[in-house]
Amino acid sequence: MCYLEQTAATARTLNCCVVMMLEILLMLSLPAVVHQNLMKAHVLCCEGVCPERVVFVKEGDMVSLRCRAGGANVTWTGPSVAPETEEIRNKSEAVETLVLLHQRSLVLLRASLEHQGVYVCSVGDSSSSDSVNLTVLTRESECDSMSCYPHTCSIQESCRLKCPKHLHLPHLTSTSTTWYKAGQSRPVSSEESYHFPSVRDADSGVYSCVRSYLYDGRLYNMTRTTELDVEADERSGRNPVIVSPQANQLFSVDLDSHVEIDCKAVLYSDGEEVHWLTDNTFVENNDSFPVYYMSTRQESRSEMTASLVLQKVSKEDLLKNYTCKLESPMCQRESPSYSNCSVTVFLVPKDHPSHVSMVLWLAGVVVLMVVSLLIYVKLKIEIVLLLRDTLGCFGRSSDGKSYDAYLMYYKCERGAGLCGGDRKWLENVLEERFGYNICLFHRDVLPGEAAAEAVLQCIQKSRTLVLIPTCGDSDPGSALLSAIHEALVERQIHLVWITAGTAAEPGSVGSVPEALQRLGRAEHSVAWRGLSSWSPSSSFWKQLRFHLPAPQRSGKMAAAP
Question: What does the alpha-carbon distance between residue 454 and residue 449 come to, in Å, rounded to a whole number?
C-alpha cells in the first residue's frame, strides 16, 4: 500500500495516484472476499485527497471511523452528524444521537440503519479530506463475506486471533473482552487475543471477539468476527526473520523532526509478531504518545511492518537505544542456531557543515583554480604540443587547403637572418621531423607563371603564411609583399612572423613596408637566434609549432641528420 502525506511534491502525487490505479485494478481481479477485505484495510492518501473506504458493521455494534487526512481541527459530516469541531459533544446529546466526536475519530455507539451512508472529514480550511462509506448489516447470519474476516492458520502451528483495537476516548471505559465460538453458548476466552499454541482441525470455525465499553452508565459492544481455516501449510517449519533494519544500524536525524523507522519481518505463524522497545521498555501502540509504534500486516505475504514513530525528536531520544523485538516460539525456545529475534538501532544527530568549513572549502577551490590557471598559462605551449604528439591530433583535410604553410622569405638588412644552411635546415625539420606539408616558391611554383599570381595561389592553398628573414637574396615572393598586401588583408590569412636575433617586433625590419609591418604586429612572432634555435626541442621550435596549425600528416618524429 502507498501512504503519502499532504506536503508531498506534485511528482510524488502523480506516482501515488498511478500506484492507486494499479492497486484498484489488482483488487478487482481478486476473489470477492479478498477484494472486500483489501478494501477494508486500504489506506491511501495523495496530496490530502483520500479515496473513499467501505466499512461494514453489524446493526447494534459500535464502530469507530478515523480520519486519515493530515492536519488539525477535524470536522465530520454525514448521516446524523452535524458539522462540528469540538473535542466531544455534550453527554446528553451524545446519548441521544449515539455519536461521539473526539480529535480525529468519530464513534457510533450503536449503529443503526439510519447511520448508514457516507461520512466525510475535512481539516480546517484546507482541501485535505477523507471519506468513509458506512454499510450497516442486519444480524441475519453469524458470518458473511462482508463482515467476517477470513483467517488461515497452519495445522500444529501457533495461531492468534485478534480483537478490535482499543478505543481511547474520554468518558469511555473498557470493561471486558469476551471471545465466542459459533455453535457454543459459553465464552471460550476472556483474553485480549485468542491464542492457539498448536492449532488443530477441530479449531476451525467462526469466532467473535466482543469488547464492552461503559459510557454514561450504559454498555456498548464492538465486535470483530473471524472465520478460522486450519490447513496444512507448505511454509511450516520455516523460521521467521527480521528483514530490516540491520543490527546496530545508525539513523541520522535532526532535532525536533518527525522520524519513522520501519521494522519489516517475514512471519510464518499468527503467533508471531514484531514490536518495539526503548531501553527494554515496551513502546505503546497509541499515537497520543510522543513515541509510539504502529503495525501493518499483509496476510497473503506473511509480511509485517512495525513502524517506530517519534513525533518530535528530542535530545533525550538520542540517548536511548531502540530495539525491534520478534515474538516467536523459536525465540522463546532460545535455539542456539537462531539469533534473529531482535535488532537494536541508534539515533545520531546529522552532521551539518559549519560556515567556517564551507568558507575554507570555497577558498581551497578558488586557490586550486588560480594555481591551475597559472600552470596552464606558464606551460600552455608544452601542454598543447604534448597532447598533439601523444594523441596524434592532425589537421583536417576537409578545408580544401593543399599545404599547411607557405614559406615566404624577406631580406633582413641587418644581416641577422637565416642563410642558406639555416633555411635548408628549417625546411627539412618542418617537413621531415614534424610532418608539415609546406609550399616553397622555388620548388612548387611552375616556371613561366606570373610571380604575383603564383604567390597568391600558393598563399590561397596554404593554411598559414610564414614570413622568414634571410641574410641573402630572397625568393621572388619577397619583392611582392607590397603588391599582395591588400590581398593578405582581404583574406585575413593566418600569419606567423619569424624575426631575426632579439628583434621581437616585426616592425623593426626596415625592408618591409609599414602597412605589412602593422599587419605583422597583429599576428604571432617567433625569434630566430641562430645555432641555439637549431635543436627541434628548442624554444624557437616549440613556439613555431604552437603558432602553426596541426599538420595534416604525422612526421617521422626522428632527429634530422
Answer: 6
How many CB atoms lie under 10 A from the CB of residue 76? 22
The domain made up of 241-349 has a fold known as: Immunoglobulin-like (2.60.40)
Residue 314 to residues 105, 344, 448, Cα–Cα distance (Å): 28, 19, 99
Q: Residue 144 and residue 139: Cα distance in Å, rounded?
A: 10
Assigned C-alpha cell, 528:
630566430
* CA distance linking residue 475 with residue 442, whole number of Å: 7
Contacts of 94 (CB under 8 A, 6+ apart): 88, 100, 109, 215, 216
Separation CA 417–CA 478 (nearest Å): 14
Whether the domain at 54-231 and the domain at 394-547 fall into the same CATH topology: no
Q: Would you say domain 54-231 falls under CATH 2.60.40.10?
A: yes
Supply the pLDDT for residue 9.
38
Q: Which of 96-100, 367-371, 507-511 has the lowest mean pLDDT?
A: 507-511
538-549 pLDDT per residue, tens: 888 888 888 888
- CATH code given to domain 394-547: 3.40.50.10140
Domain borders along the chain are 1-51, 54-231, 241-349, 353-393, 394-547
pTM of the model: 0.39
